[in-house]
Amino acid sequence: MLNAKFHEKEAMIIAEAGRPGAITIATNMAGRGTDIVLGGKQEENDKDWADKHKQVIEAGGLHVIGTERHESRRIDNQLRGRSGRQGDPGFSKFFLSLDDNVLRLFIDDNRKQLFSRLSDGMDDSSIEHPLLNNAIANAQKKIENRNFEIRKQILEYDDVSNDQRLTIYKLRNYFLEENDSETLLFEYLDNLLEKTADKLLPEDQNSNWKFDNLDKALTQSLGVSPDFNLLEKDGLNFGKVMDYMNDFYQKFYFEKFGPLKERKAELERQISIQVMDAAWKRHLQNIDSLRGNIGLRAYAQRNPINEFKKESFYLFDAMIEAFKDDIVKILFNIKIQTMSSKEFEEHKKLREQSKSS
To answer: Any idea what the Cα angle at residue 42 is, between residues 36 and 43, rounded to 5°?
Structure first.
């Protein structure tokens, strides 16, 4: 028996499957790539092989008998192709039941009743009719078209995720290639400050601005906030508030990370990549969940693909915004401890001891 599990043993079976009188039971794993030599394997100094080869040819060559028709015509043709290879004679025949999956699911009841009436009066109740062959071929075409649409739909879903993947990898490579990440981080800072201030300082109500809530929000997010009492009230507008906050936090950032010198860029890069990787993993989980449930939108007469593209864009945009905010918050809240070389060596020894234990 051939089922693609015991390769060495099955290779021996295939080598002898073409000898006279041999019967080999196989799954459709014995399809493309399986060559059966008529007469069996030809050994050196095997004088009887020519007689065996001739005997098999006179008997009609290799006969392939199938017990079902598969969903794909390609698989059936591969099985048929085991016989009649390279000019050798051969024969193939398939036996089916009206209860087989292909016939049961894709041929209507009227056709089945017609085929049953065609078998009336026959001794073996078998049906051989062009209508049946055409019905099976049409059923296989329907299945192939359905499978094609499924693969096409999967590809459309993957294209959406792939575009997002390319975007996130491009940003990740920016940090990995040791670019000037400080400029980008200050853009993220400005974005966070603008969102926070926009919620608490409506531009059309600048005469009634109260900075207490803004002070609390900034302290909670970044660990520190500027003294808004130093702001000049005359001609005060949203742009001046933003400039004041950006100047304060950039100065604070330089004072905090200045002592690190060349290690500052490495710290920024490591934190940015770690936060990005964590955000991307969460996003992939959300996309998988969305993809599993988006098909329900079809009940509302909506195209699931278009809905998936729209929803995944919102998720990706929210992920990028959260990633930007998280980097800024971590960098401003992180605590930097300085220690002498002696303290560093002692701390290193303690870590090594804890690992070994």
So the answer is: 140
Q: What is the mean pLDDT of each run of 10 residues along the chain (357 residues)?
A: 72 83 76 75 78 86 84 80 81 80 73 68 62 77 83 82 90 84 90 90 76 90 88 81 91 87 85 93 91 84 86 92 93 79 75 74
**162-350: what CATH class?**
mainly alpha
What class does CATH assign to 1-95?
alpha beta
Positive or negative torsion for Cα 236, 240, 242, 245: negative
Give the integer Cα–Cα distance in Å for 38 and 304. Answer: 53
> Residue 244 carries which side chain, given as an amino acid letter?
Y
Considering the entire predicted model, what is its pTM? 0.60
- Residue ranges of domains in the chain: 1-95, 162-350
Specify the DSSP element, H or E, that contains 63: strand 62-66
Chain mean position to CA 229:
53
Cα gap 221→324, rounded to integer Å: 13
Q: Of the candidates 267, 263, 312, 280, which has an alpha carbon nearest to the alpha carbon of residue 170?
A: 280
Residue whose C-alpha is closest to residue 219's, from 200, 240, 239, 205: 200
Partners of residue 26 on adjacent β-strands = 2
